[in-house]
Amino acid sequence: MSRRGWILFAAMCVVWGIPYLLIKIAVREIGPAELVFIRTAIGAVLLLPIALARKELRASIRPWLPLLVYTVVEIGLPWLLLSDAERHVDSSFTGLVIAGVPLVAAVLARLSSRAERLTAARVGGLLTGFAGVALLMGFHLGTGGIVPMLELVGVVVCYAAGPLIIERWLTDVPRYGVAAASLVVGAVLFAPVAVPSLPSLARTVSTGPALAALALAVICTALAFVLFFALVAEVGGVRATVITFVNPAVAVVLGFLILGEEVTVLTGVAFVLILAGSFLATRRSADSSPPSADVAGRADPAEAPAAPGH
Hints:
Layout: H1 3-15, H2 19-26, H3 32-53, H4 57-61, H5 64-85, H6 91-98, H7 101-112, H8 120-144, H9 146-169, H10 175-194, H11 198-204, H12 207-235, H13 237-240, H14 243-258, H15 265-282
């Protein structure tokens, strides 16, 4: 991997490792629906000029129904559930549970395509990874309650389903157009609930949660999409997905250092099981064909999964 590729990779590991910390801080004073609206609205304002300059927006809204479904599944619903869950559970715990997305994605890919074979290694990886998730959630069930756990399961399923929607109905749609259009749609969907409460929220919210919400929109949404697409263009979609294995570690470290969240031996064991299972369940088999290349010789960005919302 080139030096530029390593820099982009490191940046993405941080950018999509910090949302859980920022959400935890923001929801202290900002409601889940309001937080999602702020994030999508500001993100849309920042990404729309890029999509318009690249002439990608019109092509993205043409398949409006798949775009609407993608927005709900990959942005609207998981961001709402994630924000609500983090009012009750630690940010580090949330990051570790979300690390199970590749496991669910592997199962959904197998259910939706006969081409996805479940080899012995993949089955072993799925069992190992799900054992780690079960261990983690079982240990925290008494502290967080059943509702946040179900919400996090919903987030994992949504994040895993999003790339399948892209693959089946939006493969040929320009990527910046999809990102910008989905954020616009997300903001419109949450506006009726969030906008009426914004004036009172502006008067009462303190600096910490306000800055956390702003960072979520600017860094973890708009900038994150730009960096992710640049990373895919540089190293290919397959390599780019490796950030999924590093983000949870960033979330755990930040939760421990900044919020003083507890990190136990069980947390470490569950983390190892989830990552090992995800690696085994999602790695390409020896007979898999390599990603197609564009004229520059790099992997085709269309080979990349949808950028996860985080």
